[in-house]
Specification:
Elements: H1 4-20, E1 27-40, H2 49-54, E2 56-67, H3 82-86, E3 87-101, H4 114-121, E4 122-137, H5 142-146, E5 152-165, E6 168-171, E7 204-220, E8 223-234, E9 254-265
Antiparallel strand pairs: 1-2, 1-9, 2-3, 3-4, 4-5, 4-6, 5-7, 7-8, 8-9
């Protein structure tokens, strides 16, 4: 089984090594990215279309690139390498917020059990602040793209992010005990088969593995447009404020983020 934490550590060391030995020949880019987010968590039913598309939100971020190919600041004393022509280091700070509900057959209107009512009344919000680094690989030469040899530059990336999460939870379940109505710390307001403590909206932090595929489009000499699809896997299952222990809980929380961006080359 893939050890995500070891992979994350290896990637951090690799990026640090390449950065340390490439500083003299680097230039910089800055940009903004934004787009819809789909969150996969313990809410809803796995592989259910309404869950996948219903538990969605929006993300926005600021990105910074270290570019080792851009010739304006190129150090001619250091010969250009394969790494310079095919890799960039991307640093990012981003924010996303997702509304979470239960979907699928367990909350179908035909279900009239108390547990069905509890699930329908349960709502959450995942709120995450990310800070991280990715290594982007461009199959085509970066400098050729910068000099308009072609208009499109596809890429893939792999990186590690640190995430500060602050989930929220609420319930409108009509508990027979009036003192328990709306109490998110009372297990009787939530699905009866979940273990006590499964619903926990405590803030916390975790690391995550990030990989993406995308493409850049050259607008002019100093700017690009970007389209990027990201998969982000958290090393924690409480990012959404819910960590039940049923058999369906096979994975930690993760998300898909489709974003568009504008990148500017600092002159």
């Amino acid at each position: 089984m893939l050890n995500y934490k070891r992979l994350a550590l290896f990637l951090c060391l690799f990026v640090f090594y390449q950065t340390a030995f490439s500083q003299l020949g680097s230039s910089h880019e800055i940009g903004i990215v934004a787009g819809p987010v789909e969150f996969r968590s313990d809410y809803g039913v796995r592989d259910n279309a309404s869950t996948n598309f219903g538990n969605s939100g929006f993300g926005i971020g600021i990105v910074h690139y270290m570019n080792f190919s851009y010739k304006r600041n190129y150090n001619f004393r250091r010969p250009i390498t394969y790494f310079d022509e095919h890799f960039k280091i991307r640093n990012e700070i981003s924010f996303n917020k997702i509304t979470l509900n239960h979907f699928g057959r367990w909350v179908d209107p035909s279900k009239t059990s108390e547990d069905a009512k509890r699930l329908r009344a349960h709502e959450g919000k995942a709120t995450n602040l990310d800070l991280g680094t990715e290594l982007e690989f461009f199959p085509l030469e970066i400098h050729a793209f910068e000099t308009f040899a072609y208009n499109y530059a596809p890429f893939i990336s792999l990186g590690v992010h640190y995430t500060s999460f602050n989930p929220k939870v609420s319930t409108t379940y009509a508990n027979p005990d009036p003192t328990a109505v709306g109490d998110v710390t009372n297990p009787s307001n939530f699905y009866s088969l979940w273990e006590p403590g499964s619903v926990d909206a405590s803030p916390g932090s975790t690391f995550s593995l990030v990989t993406s595929v995308g493409v850049r489009y050259k607008v002019n000499k100093l700017s690009d447009l970007m389209l990027n699809l990201r998969w982000q896997y958290y090393f924690n299952d409480s990012v959404d404020g819910l960590d039940h222990q049923l058999a369906s809980n096979k994975y930690n929380d993760w998300l898909l983020w489709l974003n568009v961006g504008y990148i500017y080359y600092l002159d």
